[in-house]
Design goal:
alpha+beta
């Protein structure tokens, strides 16, 4: 399995001549993209092959860009036109305008883009890429310094120069007056097959508690990530957003919403990094999450909590945990969320929770409902393993069973075995 990672670097100080060259190629690529979109609309085609025969030679002569840049402009034009068609199919009564790109951005493949390490005291790492057509010309390639400040950036770019990772497509981006390089690289990983020797980490994702991490260890067995501050910021943003909308101040409205998105992304990165760091401390870790794909369509909520519920970013958090875990070779298992916060971890009876508190009417056990959910999610891993082993035995004996569907990670079916027998093993 191959997985990719992208790191953003800021470009160092450039001379006026280099800035003019970068601005020139960025504007050329933008105009090339617009021309390809117009040709595609006139010819009524979104086929890469047809567009290549229609516009490649003309664009090469007109703009004198490297071939890889023209290919990427064609691919981008096809993506934008297909997205417009999808929107038109969803809203047939609404007239959707054709795409009008404005972002100054160029994508290079690994043949035209290189990362170099130098002995310069000011800038240790440089990137080089083509700016004009023709590989044999002396002025066809430009060298750009990179600002590498954090240890995170230093670690990965050093491994990339030493060819521990495979360099993929990279982007040159201009934002206001600054230039950035987005370097993408990949590596091969092997996700191990799950068995009973793995140590699960159960994660309950919610709104009041963004995540509750449960590990079967005597030291630090649980970790709470509260969502109270995020809810408070969401309410404040909603109040100010209403004021800005009444005053028609769209600039401050966009800035305010972007600050909320950035803060939410920061929390998601903080939680996902902690989960992966905690998993790496175990010998054979596996991260167990709930499959919350249709949770917003199936869950009832009060009207006053509508804004909070629909701004819940559980999907981004799960995607970041999955991405970071796979990069480290840690498997991730998705289980069904049925009754995870209603089953008692001690006597296995079912009880309804009252707000954020859970109390068992049979054995008297009481705890936070999110903590109970995280413990049950962790213990459901053994339920999945036992059902997997039982399904494989039935399959070997030629007994009718749904073994191929049950073994899909991410869509675990409800097992036939009793939950009490499985939870006793944990």
């Amino acid at each position: 399995m191959q997985i990719q990672k992208t790191i953003k670097f800021k470009v160092g100080e450039l001379s006026n001549s280099k800035q003019e060259k970068l601005d020139l190629i960025l504007n050329k690529s933008l105009n090339c993209l617009k021309d390809i979109i117009q040709i595609s609309i006139l010819e009524n085609t979104t086929s890469n092959t047809k567009l290549h025969h229609l516009c490649y030679k003309d664009m090469r002569k007109k703009y004198k860009l490297p071939s890889c840049v023209i290919h990427q402009c064609r691919n981008k034009a096809v993506e934008m036109l297909k997205s417009v068609k999808r929107l038109q199919r969803r809203n047939p009564k609404k007239q959707i305008l054709p795409p009008n790109p404005k972002a100054l951005r160029i994508r290079y493949d690994n043949q035209a883009f290189h990362v170099l390490k130098t002995e310069s005291k000011k800038f240790e790492y440089f990137t080089s890429f083509l700016i004009t057509s023709g590989y044999k010309k002396d002025n066809s390639r430009i060298y750009i310094p990179l600002i590498v400040n954090s240890d995170y950036q230093k670690e990965y770019i050093a491994d990339l120069v030493n060819k521990q990772y495979k360099l993929c497509a990279s982007d040159l981006v201009k934002q206001d007056k600054d230039y950035f390089i987005h370097i993408t690289f990949s590596k091969e990983i092997n996700i191990p097959e799950l068995n009973s020797s793995f140590q699960p980490i159960g994660i309950d994702i919610g709104i009041n508690n963004l995540a509750v991490v449960s590990v079967a260890q005597q030291r630090n067995p649980v970790k709470f990530f509260s969502g109270k501050r995020l809810i408070w910021r969401l309410k404040q943003t909603q109040k100010k957003d209403t004021e800005f909308q009444q005053n028609c101040n769209l600039r401050l409205q966009r800035k305010l919403n972007q600050e909320l998105v950035d803060y939410r992304d920061f929390l998601n990165h903080q939680i996902s990094s902690y989960v992966v760091k905690r998993a790496k401390q175990l010998e054979k870790p596996v991260i167990v999450l709930e499959n919350l794909r249709y949770i917003q369509q199936t869950t009832k909520h009060r009207k006053k909590y509508k804004n909070i519920f629909f701004n819940w970013s559980f999907r981004k958090l799960q995607e970041q945990i999955l991405y970071k875990a796979n990069w480290e070779g840690i498997p991730v298992l998705f289980i069904e969320p049925n009754y995870t916060s209603q089953i008692c971890p001690k006597c296995f009876s079912t009880n309804k929770r009252v707000k954020h508190n859970y109390s068992c009417s049979h054995c008297g056990y009481s705890a936070n409902s999110d903590f109970v959910g995280a413990v049950n999610i962790r213990k459901k891993f053994f339920e999945f393993i036992q059902f997997k082993e039982q399904a494989s035995i039935n399959y070997a004996l030629d007994i009718t069973c749904s073994e191929p569907k049950a073994l899909k990670i991410g869509s675990v079916q409800k097992p036939i075995i009793k939950l009490e027998d499985v939870l006793l093993r944990a």
